[in-house]
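User: I'm putting together notes for a lab meeting next week and I want to include a structural view of one of the chains we've been expressing. I don't have a solved structure, so I'd like a prediction I can at least talk through. The sequence is below, exactly as it appears in our construct file.
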Amino acid sequence: MTEQIETIDDELRQGRRKSAKPMLWVSMISMVMFFAGLTSAYVISMKREDWVSFGLPQAFYLSTIFILLSSFTLWLSQKALKKNQLPKSFILLVTTFILGLGFIWFQYIGFNQLKEMGLYFTGPESTVSTSFIIGITFMHVIHLIAGVLVLLVVIYNHFKKKYSSANMLGFELGAIFWHFVDVLWIYLFFFFYFIR
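Assistant: Thanks for the context. Below is the predicted structure for the 196-residue chain, given as structure tokens.
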């Protein structure tokens, strides 16, 4: 009887593992469609007579560097985990988390720089273009905050020694989501840089 229960538990765990990545991919595809819709609306709105062009705030350039570095440290962390170099992997994972917080901080500074330029999300001084750029960027920050929470779970599990070269699924899922959020920001950054 005990053996049958253990067999059922193993089968359930394997089933969850098989479905975890496809479910993550489906959610990421829906996010791509969401941001594709927003950026398409941005392009269509550029034809309006009240459209105002402006340069991106300097803080957005710095936040881009932070998120690129965070993906690099996460990649190094995963590489170290595959070699069972757990302390090295953990330090790189925490570094990724700190860089992610740095990204959010510079996004906040970027929003304030837009205000200093007299560009607002809503109100009489707002424009369609600033409403779009602030709205789309803010939606990305919300997704990145979700990524930071995912990283916290991965850090906790790593600290509890739940990951190894033989058991990396949770780490891999967190890494896929983080890299996705990174690529999404790079797309948005270049989109806003070239299309204004």
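A couple of points you could mention at the meeting. Residues 119 and 125 are 7 Å apart (CA to CA). The longest helix spans residues 2-45.

User: Perfect, that's what I needed.
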